[in-house]
Structure formats: structure tokens, C-alpha cells
């Protein structure tokens, strides 16, 4: 096993990481939504936002592992921060740097790794957005481009205030958060020639002028998040409006799936006593990801 060396600018790198004031903070949906999307898109069991501290790699967002950090001297990400290029290990068992690494011969039995370096505002490489699989695989050019684009979104979140991309009331993406991930969805759908559907749900009370309660909105947001695919991008784009961007889903299929969810949610909200006379209106439309009008349509929401 080859342990990762300190970066040439190690002290500046560590100082830049400390200035972000993010180490040892709780998980946040603004990062989890990205790792969740990465794991589902690339069909891997593990996706991480990993930050490389002095003696450890610490996971700000972690899907597929039940630990929050590992030692830096056995980390893959410690190697990845030495270059701006993606580090892709297609088969760890035939790579002299990693074949006898404890994370390879023991849990989580890493066989494939792909890490896109994350940069601090001043340019220092402080960690990665990484994918891990338990079997060897390859990452083609378009997939590498998609991973880099998701890493760029993580970098935006590292330097932004919490409210910039998230709706504080429902813990969903807000309009800006939707647009941040929309570029990635449009690229993926275009490159892989996948259908793309935009769905908009408007929640209202029939024969009532009073707004929906906080509890009702939070419940609806949670119910949608629980039922949607990890590849779907869900956002609150208005006081009573939820928007969903669905890659690899035709608009008629989306209408049928979401319509069934709406029936269930309306019944649950009434049964739980959050609100009576609830109505959720749904519209769906197919978008052409290769056409600039698709991005404009999202910006007009």
C-alpha cells in the first residue's frame, strides 16, 4: 500500500479548509441531495463528499457507509487532492497503490473509486466528491464530465450561505438549488439521449383563503421526498408550489406516477388532521434537454 503524501501546499490547504468552518458539522440536505443524486445516477453503492483534514478524511455527506471519517493514511481521497484531474481507479486489486489497502481487503471492499477534487475559494484542493463500488468498472468520458459538474455544485455549496440554495421551511432545494442541479440533469439527459420531464405541483385548500400550515407543507415535502427516485430533483419553487425534474421519465409516465402519489398524500394529510379540503394540482411537460428553451423554461418558474 502507498500512503498519500502531504500536498505541496499542505499548510495553505489546511488553513483554507479550516476557514470554511465546516469540519465536524451535522449532515445537511444541500450536500446530501448531491451525493444522493450521484449514487443513483452512477449506480454505485457509495457516494461521499470527503474533506481531507490533517490526519483524517471526514465525510460531510455520506451515502452507503456507516462511518463519518477514516484515517488519511489509508484514504483514496488523500491521493486525489494532488491533481485537478479526476482520480479514477477502475480495479483496485491490480493497482499497486491500493491492492493491499485496508479499505480494499476489508470493509467496504473498494474495487472501484472515482474522485473529483473539491477546491476552496482560493483554489486549494481540500477534498473530493467521490464514487465507490464493490466491483471493478469503468467511467467513460461523458460520465467523468457529469461527475465533475456535480463536484462544481458541491464547491458552490462549500462557500455559500445555507439559505442560498435551500428552502429553510421544508429542507428542500429552493429555486436556485433547482437551477444548480438542472444543468447537470440537462447534460445527462442530452448526452445519454434520455427523456426529461418537468412536473409542477400546486397545493391549495378548496374554498379557503387561509394559507396552508407549516406542518402541512413540511409533511407534503417529506412525503414527496420519500417516494421520489434518488435521481429526481425536488424543489419548493413557490409558497405552495413544488417542482420536480425527472430524468429518464416520459411525461405521461410521470403524470401517472405522481398522480398516484398525490392521491395518497391528499388522503394522509386529511387523515392526520393537518388540513381539510386539500387539493394538489399537477402539470407535467416533456423538455428537450438539447434545446436552450429547456433551461429557460426552468428559469421562468
UniProtKB/TrEMBL annotation:
Record-linked Gene3D superfamilies = 3.30.450.40, 3.30.70.270
Pfam families in UniProt: GAF (PF01590), GGDEF (PF00990)
Q: Which SMART domains match?
A: GAF (SM00065), GGDEF (SM00267)
Under InterPro entries, the record lists: GAF, GAF-like_dom_sf, GGDEF_dom, Nucleotide_cyclase, Rev_trsase/Diguanyl_cyclase
Q: Which domain of life is it from?
A: Bacteria
Quote the protein name from its UniProt record.
Answer: Putative diguanylate cyclase (GGDEF domain) with GAF sensor domain
What residues does the GGDEF domain cover?
194-301
